[in-house]
Design goal:
NUDIX_hydrolase_dom (chains A, B), DNA mismatch repair protein MutT (chains A, B), Nucleoside Triphosphate Pyrophosphohydrolase, WH-like_DNA-bd_sf (chains A, B), WH_DNA-bd_sf (chains A, B), two-stranded antiparallel ribbon, Arc Repressor Mutant, subunit A, homodimer, alpha+beta
């Protein structure tokens, strides 16, 4: 990114965007039993940055979040959930300190955080004009990030963990028929730790959202593991949560 | 509120505050088995408004939320949780349409929502300069609100309901020793519906956060009801939530 590139961008942003508000998205992907996060690297920059941008004068925040994620990463049709706002003093102000004071990017920004958990094979990351790369990076450990973006990822991750502590997860992330060890792998990837197999099995059964299939997966030398699918109705009901 | 009052406020706000960002707090109070919300009525205005205000240039958003709630209602030392951001187009822009275009309040605002659930007897609402009254109003049904403030209250309420669907509640809201019907009353006030007594009892016992006391409450003509207190350690552990 040249000096002139960012100054041109600044002029256009002052024209069309709402000052002081930015939007950052934390998109988690699950592949091969590993939890990843979609990150960008700005040209000539060492550290990683979240796909983020600015709210236009003529759009609502949810629409802006979708547009920004698409423009910066090529990721489309992703259901984003708001999970937090980051508005401490000096969270981003120092990052553009070498630029003139009227640069758009040098303002104080309060950033609105969105997150998603997606099937990574459905997203093909594409770098934009300002970035050298747009990639899936492992979450454990979080790569070196600019500004407070590590804090933002950690908060998104704790929101995701909170979510799986009381709601089911896995639909659209696992194959239609899956084994319990595969489901356990998803939970372990999100939690970043190994779980006890017996405990996991009992808690899952208590959830009562799985249907055991008659068929078994073939191919291994050992006893074929049982296959399950989600009971769609019960899964959706459990997603609703409120059940007093 | 006179025309001059609001114009004076506008000039000062342009000086000291961050444009386009506002903060609104939804403070729920529990008293006599009823769920209430802390609301203001602006002078010469029919409908109610949430205690809200603007972020100063030199403060973080969490500090701003506390300051604003205190200034507008007198409510102090309240632990506020962020629960949502409201940034649709035209959510607030029409409200000051009769004022000049350079009025601070006439901007597009993206509002950051905070909520709390408090022991109502600990808060003594005091109206500020712009308001006629600051009062606890019942949540069921929500009174007539300005702008999108009814949507904001509903979202705060659904966050609170979500919370009680998987974490304990009641500490600091009930007397130290309480009966199960009293605890059930708190849940019913938040949910806005009657619960089946047997189901509630079984779910509470499964939570394993209550200690049955030896003493019973005296005074009634009927059999004295059993008294319980929270098991503080187990309550706090359950608050943590993550338990895979």
């Amino acid at each position: 990114m040249t000096n002139q590139d960012i100054k041109d961008a600044s002029a256009e942003l002052w024209q069309n965007s709402i000052p002081h508000i930015s939007i950052d998205s934390v998109v988690f992907g699950f592949l091969n039993n590993q939890l990843n996060v979609l990150l960008l690297k700005i040209k000539e920059e060492e550290n990683w940055i979240l796909p983020g941008g600015y709210l236009q004068k003529n759009e609502g925040i949810d629409d802006a979040a979708k547009r920004i994620l698409y423009e910066r990463s090529g990721a489309d049709k992703i259901f984003l959930n708001h999970f937090g706002v980051f508005g401490d003093l000096n969270r981003s102000e120092g990052y553009f300190k070498d630029y003139p004071d009227d640069l758009w990017h040098k303002q104080r920004f309060i950033t609105i955080g969105y997150y998603a958990l997606v099937d990574q094979t459905q997203v093909n990351p594409i770098p934009d004009h300002f970035t050298d790369c747009c990639e899936w990076k492992p979450v454990h450990p979080i790569p070196n990030m600019v500004m407070d973006h590590e804090i933002i990822i950690k908060k998104a991750l704790s929101t995701l963990r909170e979510h799986i502590s009381h709601k089911p997860i896995g639909y659209n992330l696992l194959p239609e028929a899956f084994t319990l060890p595969e489901l356990q792998g998803l939970y372990e990837a999100i939690l970043g730790e190994k779980l006890n197999r017996g405990n996991f099995y009992r808690k899952m059964m208590r959830y009562d959202i799985l249907i055991k299939l008659d068929e078994q997966r073939r191919g291994g030398a050992y006893k074929a593991p049982d296959l399950y699918k989600f009971d769609e109705d019960k899964y959706k009901k459990a997603l609703g949560g409120l059940n007093w």
